[in-house]
Specification:
CATH topology of the largest domain: Aldehyde Dehydrogenase, Chain A, domain 1
Largest sheet: 7 strands, parallel
Helix content: 40-55%
CATH superfamily of the largest domain: Aldehyde Dehydrogenase, Chain A, domain 1
Number of helices: 14
Strand content: 15-25%
Oligomer: single chain
Length: 428
Amino acid sequence: MAEVDSSAIGQLETQGRVAKDASRYMAFASTEAKNRALGLIADGLIGNIKDIGEANSRDMEAARASGMDDAMLDRLLLNPQRLEGMAADVRTVASLPDPVGEVFDMRTLPNDLLLGRQRVPIGLIGTIYESRPNVTIDISSLCLKSGNAVILRGGSEAINSNRALVTVVADACRGAGLPEGTVQFVDNPDRSLVGHLLKMRQYIDLFIPRGGAGLILRVLEEAAMPVVAGGMGVCHTFVDRTADLGMAVRIVHNAKVQRPTVCNALDTVLVHREAAQAFLRALALELEGAGVELHADERALEVLCPVYQKLKPATQEDWGKEFLSLVAAVRVVDSLDEALEHIREYGSGHSEAIITEDYSAATRFHREVDAACVYINASTRFTDGGQFGLGTEVGISTGKLHARGPMGLRELTTYKWIVFGSGQVRPG
């Protein structure tokens, strides 16, 4: 293992200490100050489109020269439309209710103690993420609104983009009078620093990784503080025997084609044998025009071979694979039970969908599928903080503790018990 530069570790420790101090003040920051910072971030993204675009172009050029594939290049890209969308998301976060200070579950005990819970920030959030520079803004805006400080560590492939974005965030925090150092960015791309960052539990209260399976696994294994992680998004859509075939084709096309490089895009189509012939032929007309390559099992091959060009026999490796490209696996199943069993074996706990007109099948599917998001007659592409009305997200958790699915403002808070008495003492 490469030796870590002691001066770089010292800088990282300083960032942790400064951010931790800032988090204590952020816990009491007013909603007005937090919203002012978010407004300035949105203005800064629009006002600095040219500078951010130039920084992103340097990253894109280096990424192409390194041989980065199209899926990763798409994640890295920041064009004016995406920056405008990011600014709109930040404004949405500003418009949402401030979760900090909310009192809930109040009740009076038999001894007349008034007991309840109050929502409070988690403290200092640490995060490491790959490729997507928009995550810098997503996480910063949600942490600010929820009263947390944050240490950001993006990938080296987006270093110029992230520097430009963090400058916008830092200027906005300063302009709104928020504590200096509330948002810290690990500017040093040395990967050996990651191990040290994951041990800084004296500062960091929660770690949230976003990236590929290797990154997620490393954080889960090495982090000394609690972790909320989103694993791979292996997403299935099951076309039941009673499905409206026109609806099914539209949903599968959207889930696969609308943006194939993201975690909520479709990976595997399961189709009931009674619907296979009509559905797969109708689907072929839509997907072939979009350039989708299908990896089909034996029964799906029989239907598709005469009408589809970009076709391969499915292998065992295709089941449970997150393609992140215009590739999808197709399997014909004999029943809802078989579809559920396939999802149990190969699903990642992210997003699963059924297309059906059968109420009992829909009910069984949403009851029995173990995933963060379960859809009835809708595309898995909706699994997104913005689409769920959260403004944006710090990630999509596929775990079951603390948070599940898109993580917005409330998922970046915890609570404390508050107890009001009138002199009560515990007897005995």
